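User: tokens in, sequence out, please.
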């Protein structure tokens, strides 16, 4: 559309797509009272005609863009149903004059005579329109505006738009039904409402502002946009948005102000609700103890995040981050040395479109934070919400707990060390006592003479055995805790182990007068285990059963097989165990309290040791009891030997070492031929052992330190040396090789007799050339057995 003049005179729209013809028509129109507007696109004509409120349309040429068809389309528009149409054709040929005139308010001109006919025919048509009242109708502002309104709302699809025309000359307002309703007026009486009535509806606070906008728009011929409140019939206030424009007479005075109004109450309440939400959100964010920020990420050309700018932060964020007034500033500006990992977290969140969290610390402020980052906005948005949660207190607690746990572990380790040292230290005096007791063992004649002496000796011997047993258990617990126990597994059968275990607890069974029932499966169950440790396990369980069963009780030992598992149980009809103590009894130093306040022997380490030894054998143990006073059953499960076919009968005959024994001595016939040198800085222990061995017929010599040993050894040329490892001037490991260098002692048998009994101790002794090993306090039976063996070699 092209506007060819400017002003308040009526406009005529020329529809022509040929430039030279258009120029001709426009030239002719210059001498008329009409302002010309041209349009070269037929489809745009109806819209342009309505929008520009044209006074007439000149349609050039039938069959081209203008013509009868276009005339019909214009007439179909309610706003154009009376607008004068002037058809302009080259000749009459092909022009359907009848169809054109049927459209009403029409004239037809031929191009050849145009320069003579255009101006007068246009004037005549205008006069005719005016004479028939059509002109008035056409220029009736309400009628015209409502027509536009209908078309416009049809286009926009809105319903609640009110339309009115304020006639400035008559000071009246004509309203369409929607506007009438908005004003609370009766629709029938809304055609000439006094303008003051309408002005009176404007909220007093908005009045002056509204009038000022109209005055300015009218003076400047601009569209006025007003946002104000109108009183509703109910006495409330309605928010409206109005747009108006002005029409002027030929002298430039404003005559009409058509306007459209939209009820904005809903819009306003939505805005209010939004504002309230916004305020609530701000309040929440501000009151949060967590730091909160919204940042806009800044990407490099390669897509990596290289910086970010703070769009929003709360107070806590500034406090926690230590960044002052960050909003609007970039992080690299605030912290030029910021670590790359910050950007990595943002990149990760941006890539995944999801939440990312990590812990970080601020070393300068000595605080820990959980930093959460989550993208906000559209997918792929580079805007992120950042939450800083101060977890310093939690981290401190965790650190305290860790330190506490480490201290506990350390305390436990020191306790274990202490027990190990104590037990170790007790071994030497016990060895002396044991040897002394052996020496004092009454003969049959003594017993006949004074029975009480024999009974006292037996009691002392038994109690000593008890103490040695406890100390052995404590040392074993310490070794297990330090991972110092290594099993010497071999193929064994349960029955053989049981014999040895029963043998060691027989005195206790006898004292308590218990009966033991055996129910052992046939063939006996073979498994791969350390025979010494298995004997220890079974003896411990039978020992407990005997201890915790009143006099004359009944014990039962059963074995059976479950698939690939060898099972055995030790039951008794004793004091039983409460179900809530089933687990506790396996813990170190736990002794279940009894109502009968009966006190019994024991430190509460036996079952701990049993369970740990069984676990070392890949097995498990559990206890069941029908309740206190009804006895209990300990059941052990161990993996059956992988290849059970490998002769159980072979292993039946295998010798089983016995842990400790005070059985009587067997003196070898060749004892007299052996010279024994005992090296021990514990003089009592050395002397008592010497006494006993001398009584058995050995030639025994003593030395208390390394230097003395070397002198005595070269003098007496011993066959066997019992060597303590911890000597005052040198260790037994150093002494052993020097002994061998003495003339004639290259093949001397050196036996370590020491409290150091772990596998590593034994290996070290072996490396130093020590032949055999006995752990203190070694039983005399074991020492004699070894000497016998050596003598018969
Ligand atoms: P203790 O040296 O006290 O016997 P244990 O570790 O061998 O230590 O046993 C721990 C506790 O378990 C015992 O003090 C006892 O209360 C309970 N207990 C063990 N065996 C039996 C049993 N056969 N009958 C009843 N109570 C038992």
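Assistant: Sequence out:
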């Amino acid at each position: 559309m092209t506007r060819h003049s400017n002003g308040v005179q009526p406009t005529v729209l020329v529809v022509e797509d040929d430039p030279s013809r258009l120029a001709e028509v426009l030239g002719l129109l210059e001498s008329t009272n009409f302002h010309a507007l041209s349009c070269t696109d037929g489809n745009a004509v109806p819209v342009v005609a309505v929008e520009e409120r044209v006074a007439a349309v000149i349609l050039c040429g039938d069959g081209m863009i203008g013509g009868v068809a276009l005339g019909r389309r214009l007439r179909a528009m309610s706003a154009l149903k009376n607008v004068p149409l002037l058809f302009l054709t080259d000749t009459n040929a092909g022009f359907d004059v009848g169809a054109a005139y049927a459209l009403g308010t029409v004239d037809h001109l031929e191009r050849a005579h145009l320069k003579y006919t255009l101006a007068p025919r246009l004037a005549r048509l205008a006069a005719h329109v005016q004479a028939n009242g059509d002109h008035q109708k056409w220029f009736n502002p309400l009628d015209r505006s409502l027509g536009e309104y209908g078309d416009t709302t049809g286009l926009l699809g809105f319903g609640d738009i009110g339309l009115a025309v304020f006639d400035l000359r008559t000071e009246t307002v004509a309203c369409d039904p929607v506007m009438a309703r908005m004003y609370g007026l009766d629709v029938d009486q809304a055609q000439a409402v006094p303008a003051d009535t309408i002005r009176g509806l404007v909220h007093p606070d908005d009045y002056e502002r509204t009038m000022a906008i109209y005055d300015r728009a009218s003076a400047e011929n601009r569209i006025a946009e007003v946002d104000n409140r109108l009183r509703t019939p109910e006495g409330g206030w309605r928010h409206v948005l109005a747009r108006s424009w002005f029409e002027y007479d030929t002298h430039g005075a404003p005559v009409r102000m058509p306007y459209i109004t939209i009820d904005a109450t809903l819009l306003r309440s939505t805005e209010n609700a939004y504002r309230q939400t916004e305020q609530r959100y701000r309040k929440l964010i501000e009151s949060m103890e967590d730091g909160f920020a919204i940042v806009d990420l800044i990407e490099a050309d390669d897509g990596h995040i290289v910086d970010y700018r703070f769009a929003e932060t709360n107070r806590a964020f500034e406090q926690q981050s230590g960044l002052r007034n960050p909003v609007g500033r970039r992080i690299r500006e605030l912290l030029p040395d910021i670590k790359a990992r910050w950007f990595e977290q943002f990149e990760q969140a941006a890539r995944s479109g999801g939440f990312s969290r990590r812990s970080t610390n601020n070393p300068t402020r000595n605080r820990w934070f959980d930093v959460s980052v989550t993208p906000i906005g559209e997918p792929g948005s580079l805007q992120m919400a950042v939450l800083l949660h101060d977890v310093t207190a939690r981290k401190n607690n965790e650190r305290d707990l860790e330190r506490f746990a480490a201290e506990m572990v350390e305390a436990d380790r020191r306790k274990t060390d202490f027990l190990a040292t104590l037990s170790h230290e007790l071994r030497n005096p016990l060895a002396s006592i044991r040897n002394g007791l052996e020496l004092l063992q009454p003969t049959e004649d003594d017993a006949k003479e004074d029975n009480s002496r024999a009974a006292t000796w037996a009691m002392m011997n038994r109690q000593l055995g008890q103490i040695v047993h406890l100390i052995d258990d404590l040392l074993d617990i310490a070794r297990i805790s330090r991972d110092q126990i290594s099993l010497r597994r071999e193929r064994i059968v349960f029955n053989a182990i049981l014999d040895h275990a029963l043998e060691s607890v027989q005195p206790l069974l006898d004292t308590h007068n218990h009966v033991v029932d055996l129910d052992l499966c046939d063939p006996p169950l073979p498994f791969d285990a350390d025979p010494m440790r298995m004997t220890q396990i079974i003896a411990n369980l039978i020992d407990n059963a005997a201890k915790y069963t009143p006099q004359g009780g009944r014990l039962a030992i059963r074995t059976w097989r479950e698939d690939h598992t060898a099972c055995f149980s030790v039951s008794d009809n004793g004091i039983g165990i409460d179900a809530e103590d089933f687990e506790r009894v396996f813990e170190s130093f736990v002794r279940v309290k009894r109502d009968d306040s009966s006190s019994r022997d024991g430190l509460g380490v036996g079952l701990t040791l049993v369970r740990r030894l069984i676990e070392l054998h890949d097995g498990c143990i559990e206890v069941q009891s029908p309740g206190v006073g009804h006895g209990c059953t300990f059941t052990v499960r161990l993996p059956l030997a992988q290849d059970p076919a490998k002769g159980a009968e072979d292993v039946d005959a295998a010798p089983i070492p016995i842990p400790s024994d005070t059985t009587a001595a067997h003196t070898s016939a060749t004892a007299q031929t052996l010279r024994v040198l005992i090296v021990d800085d514990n003089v009592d222990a050395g002397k008592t052992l010497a006494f006993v061995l001398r009584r058995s017929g050995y030639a025994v010599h003593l030395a208390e330190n390394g230097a003395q040993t070397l002198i005595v050894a070269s003098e007496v040329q011993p066959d066997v040396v019992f060597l303590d490892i911890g000597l005052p001037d040198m260790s037994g490991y150093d002494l052993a090789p020097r002994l061998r260098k003495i003339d004639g002692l290259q093949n001397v048998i050196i036996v370590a007799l020491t409290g150091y009994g772990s596998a590593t101790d034994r290996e070290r002794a072996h490396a130093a050339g020590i032949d055999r090993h006995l752990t203190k306090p070694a039983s005399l039976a074991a020492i004699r057995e070894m000497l016998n063996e050596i003598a018969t070699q």
